[in-house]
Design brief:
It is a single chain. The protein is an alpha+beta fold. The protein folds into two domains: 1-17 and 228-250, no CATH class; 19-225, Galactose-binding domain-like (Jelly Rolls, Sandwich). The protein has three helices and eleven strands; from the N terminus they run αββββββββββαβα. The protein has helices spanning 2-15, 207-210, 228-249, and strands at residues 19-25, 49-53, 61-63, 83-87, 101-105, 111-122, 130-135, 143-150, 160-167, 181-186, 213-224. Strands 1, 3, 4, 6, 9 and 11 form a six-stranded antiparallel sheet that branches. Strands 2-5-10-7-8 form a five-stranded antiparallel sheet, with no helix packed on it. A hairpin with a 7-residue loop joins strand 7 and strand 8. The longest helix is centred in the C-terminal third of the chain and has 22 residues, at 228-249. The structure holds calcium ion (2 copies). Residues 29, 33, 35-36, 38-39, 81, 83 line the site of one calcium ion.
Length: 250
């Protein structure tokens, strides 16, 4: 009987260890109002906090789908009220390397194998290079996720959406952490002391009108780790299933 119980618990609890969206921001209005200029930084799925860092401001929300070079919209499937988080006032040329951008605090307790995806639209004059950084201590210290710098296409195309992905599953402290925070910030071009514009023929411009980055579909994916409580419950459920199956056989 003990063996049956244990096997049933493992089998059933294993089935709930599955990929899930921990938190997602789509920046659309909570109630569809048909206006892309209105939206929210409250999460669409789960819980967490979105904030601006390094002097960046957000004067408004703006369209998640818009004109521009393909792809001309984010991956948001909302076609009637799709907003993006419009951000500007990035640092002046030669200043504030890896300090300015958007930041997200997400409790990853009970989740492992964290993967972050987001969409970003570069204006022509915005920085072409973005850097993902993470914190395991609530945002006191940030560490470069070294393999994750993001630049527009090789041709240096601005005014276009890019779908980005970062697999943090191998980084200690990211998973199962109530104090997990990450941010995406603008970075100088490699081996230089200044920003390169997203469009190769444009000049980088910071400040309130010089460059814009628009964000959408910021998603933290993880795998739910069964808690002791859930194992106990599923174990009982599994035992009942096992009993029922034996009853059917006999
Ligand atoms: Ca709206
Ligand atoms: Ca959106």
């Amino acid at each position: 009987m003990k063996t049956v119980f244990a096997l049933a618990a493992i089998a059933v609890s294993g089935s709930i260890s599955s990929a899930a969206v921990v938190t997602q921001w789509n920046f659309n209005s909570v109630i569809n109002d048909g206006l892309t200029s209105t939206g929210t930084t409250l999460p669409f799925v789960g819980s967490g906090t979105a904030s601006l860092v390094g002097g960046v401001t957000s004067p408004s929300f703006n369209a998640g789908g818009t004109t521009g070079i393909a792809p001309a919209s984010s991956s948001d499937t909302n076609t009637t009220d799709n907003s993006g988080w419009q951000t500007t006032n990035y640092p002046a040329q030669g200043a504030g390397n890896k300090t300015a951008g958007v930041q997200f605090a997400v409790n990853t307790t009970n989740y492992e194998d964290i993967i972050i995806t987001f969409d970003v639209r570069h204006s022509n004059t915005s920085a072409n290079t973005l850097r993902l950084q993470y914190s395991t201590d609530g945002g006191l210290n940030f560490i470069d996720a070294n393999q994750y710098t993001f630049t527009p296409a090789a041709t240096g195309t601005g005014d276009s959406w890019y779908n980005r992905s970062a697999d943090l599953s191998a980084i200690p402290g990211v998973e199962n952490n109530a104090n997990f925070v990450f941010r995406v910030v603008t970075e100088f071009a490699p081996s230089s002391s200044g920003y390169l514009a997203a469009r190769s023929t444009s000049t980088y411009g910071g400040g309130p009108t010089g460059s814009t980055l628009r964000w959408d579909m910021v998603t933290i994916n993880g795998t739910l780790v069964p808690t002791p409580g859930s194992i106990a419950l599923t174990g009982i459920a599994g035992l009942l299933v096992a009993r029922r199956r034996r009853a059917q056989v006999s």
